[in-house]
Input
Amino acid sequence: MSSEQTLFIYHTNDIHSHFEHWPKIVEFIKKQRSFHERKQENMLYFDIGDHADRCHPMTEATEGKGNVELLNQAGVQAVTIGNNEGLTFSKDTLNELYEDAQFPVLVANLLDEHDEVPAWAKPYHYITLNNGTKIGVIGMTAPFFPFYDKLGWTIVDPFEILPNLVAKVRAEADFVIFLSHLGFPADQEIAEHIEGIDVILGAHTHHVLQSGKNIKGTFIGQAGKFGFHIGQIKLVINEETKEIVDIEMAAIETPTMPQSKETLELLERLDQKQRQIMNEELAVLPYDLPVKWFEPSIGPELLAEALKEWCSTNISMVNSGVLLDSLPKGGITRGDVHRICPHPINPCIVTLRGDRLKETILHAFTERMQRLELKGFGFRGEVLGRMAFSGIEVHTKKLADQAEHVERILIDGQSIDMKKEYQLATLDMFTFGKLYPAIAESTSKVFFMPELLRDVFLWKLKQIR
Output
């Protein structure tokens, strides 16, 4: 009779530098590791990307290296990167991010200028368990093509290379685990159409799969976001045939778990480090810079002007809600700018015909859009807020319904030409989804990277005398 072996897999994803639950996760992992060692069971722990998010001052100040310290302390077996690691850091910063990592970084579909996986990464990795069972682990990240191209990377469509890569790894391994920062829909498609993957550990779309998902014998786990859950998989394996005899999957809630004292101490040390860096004074304001979300104010208007100048266009628009607070007269620190503009959002230029630009402006002035509590697309604020413009005059009038209605739109002092093509400087988040269909559907988009919106704002603040 064949003997059976038990393997436990734990996984986190999309922490996004929300560290309130991280000490609990680390303590849980530590206790589970000790428990499984005593029972002579194998245990693996993986992180599936977007651990680092520059919305957090520690991640910003340490350029993500604080996140790597936290992952080192947790004893992670391997990670892949998310779009926050891949796209919000410059190429040089990403090349240095994992210098001190004590774990392999698996990302098979990111290539450098030599069309090779960069030196800090591997396409796949093998882990041999104590009974000789060999696990092959592959990692990939979401293919945001134009953005990676702008940063000097080549990103490859996972579906182009995954079948051959799985076959190659499968030939050397008893099991294949795929660390996928591609999103749940892509994971389902992979499970449906690509043979040879036993377990997909997913991320990116923030799904909480309470008991996992089984598609054609491929098991998918994903543990939400921000560390509210940690994924747990228990595999019972036939040691002779290497087949999965039984599987249990869960997304375990973390909020009531005990915390790791060592991790709390490390977070405190990292916090002290970031305070020193973020307290650097970078500009001096000769006057107060008020920010209001639902009426015109100087702060958003200055940001719109900065966008126009940075992108070398005649017109720009930016929603007031990207600035979270006013700035007082006097010295402005790196931390001040980060606090009021924490978003990993880049400037961009979109080409819009006059009629579609008008449609966008009319949409922006609706109460629904101004009060929209947006989540995602890089936005880390509360509401979209009123649109601020530079080079565009929008004349409005309150009617009997007490709503503000657009009466006239002027571009450089002239009435908007419905057939003319305009180059509009704005935010890359408007090119995603259905916020502003005309912008999303534009076939001409130019993205500015690696500078984030706050870099452009700070550049403008430094010019004020």
Q: What stands out?
A: The two ends are 83 Å apart (CA to CA). DSSP finds 15 helices and 23 strands in the chain.
